[in-house]
Structures are given as structure tokens and as C-alpha cells.
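The freezer alarm interrupted the setup, so I double-checked each line after restarting. Inputs confirmed:
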Amino acid sequence: MNIFKAIGGTYNEVRLNPNVGTWSFLLHRLSGILLAFYLFMHLIVIATSPGNAGAFDSRLAAVQTRLFHLLEIGLVGVIFFHMLNGLRILVADFFYLTRQHQKLLWIVVIIFIIIMAYATAVMLPKVFHREVTEVAQIVGGLR
Amino acid sequence: MATKPGFPGLTSWLLQRLTGLFLVVGLFIHVNVIHFTTEARLIDFSSVTTRLAENPTGWGIFYVIFLFACIYHGLNGIWAIILDFKPGAGLLRFYLVALWLIGIFFSAYGLFGIFGLVRAGA
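Predicted 3D structure, all chains:
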């Protein structure tokens, strides 16, 4: 298996069949690869030194910056897209709704938008959030 | 071939869907606890172990099943992608062994993390 051939083949598939099914297939695969990669990074961060509070906190602090909080919104988006599209595949498989897959995709899109609106509303403040102590330091520095 | 009873591809196809269904429930719980609640404001050792200490058995069982479901679903998904590109027999065996090793390593690593955090909260 040549990776360039694989990418070329996928590109041709999208070019020759640029329909909704092909795009959802491609996005499902890409989001799946991203999530598998994230899973292992996540395990390394969480499961290293689980019995040492100081080491655990310093490791977590490194991934709780504003940038990471912003990326977390993207992560939740990738998770819910993959989840909802996966459910669409499952429903089409088990309930013989393959011919309705385009309609099912629009239902996925609507539910995805609702979930992401909620997720953004809840998670975006964290991106701009400043700890009380941090604000106090800034105010103290201005005086 | 797909209709032959016990065909391994059918088992992994079905398990991919069953683990996927479990992950729908599991991820709603996990994402809600970590990202959508107040605990998410600052996640640290204290907040994690305090939550786990509220129901160590329940959280422990949940996270062990969640871990195995995530790893199986992720690696089996990658395996399906590899199969789509029809690699040669030697390369296929290499990928299979590599995926098994990755799965065993991260399962052990994840269990170490789960039991460590649950024990720390107890």
C-alpha cells in the first residue's frame, strides 16, 4: 500500500463522485483518524502519573490554555459529527434506509448545528475566561 | 462470503456498531462532565479524584468499558480503512500486529490511569 496512491485514489473518488454520500464518507474517515490519534494523546496526558497530584496538575495545566480551550470546541465538533454520522450509517444499515441516506444526512446536519450552538455557548466563555487571581494581578499591576 | 456464519469480518463489523452505540452514551456522559459542566472551568487532580470518589465502583466500571470501547472502535476503524486500500499479505500482517500492539499498550496504559485515579480518590 502506497500512501500517495491511497491519497490519490481518495482524491479521484471525491472528484468523480462529488456527491453528499462521498463527502460524508470522506469526512467520517478523516474525523475517525483524528479522533483515534486524539484518543492516544489524551490517554498519555491523563494516564501518566495518576497517583501524583503535582505531576498530574502540571500536565493538565499545559493543555488548559486559551488555545487548547478553543481547540476543544473543534474537538467536540469532530466528536459529534463522527457520532451523528455514525448513527446515520447504523440506522441506514439496520433499518434498511440506505435509499434515504441523504435525508438522514440533513437530519444529522440539523442536530449537529443545535449541539454545536449549545457547545459553543457553554465552552466559548472558557476561552476568554480569566481566573480571579489572574485578574487581580493585572489590576494590581495597573495601579 | 459475508453471509457465511462466523465470518471474522462480520464480527468486527457488528462490534464496530455495538461499540459505536455504547460510545454515543459514553461520550455524552464524558463530554458533559468534562466540557459542559462547572468542573470544566478548571480540571485538576482534586476535581477529578473528588468526582471519582463519589462513586468509585460506578465510575471505574464505566471508564474501563469506555476505554476498551474507544480503543476497539478506533483501531478497528483504522483497520477498515487499511483493508479498503488492499495492501499485500505481508503488509497486512504487519498492520494487524502493529494495531494489536498499540491496542494492548494503550489498554494497559489506560487501565493504569483509571485505577490510579480511582484509588487516589478513595
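Quick read of the result. Chain A has one domain: 3-131.
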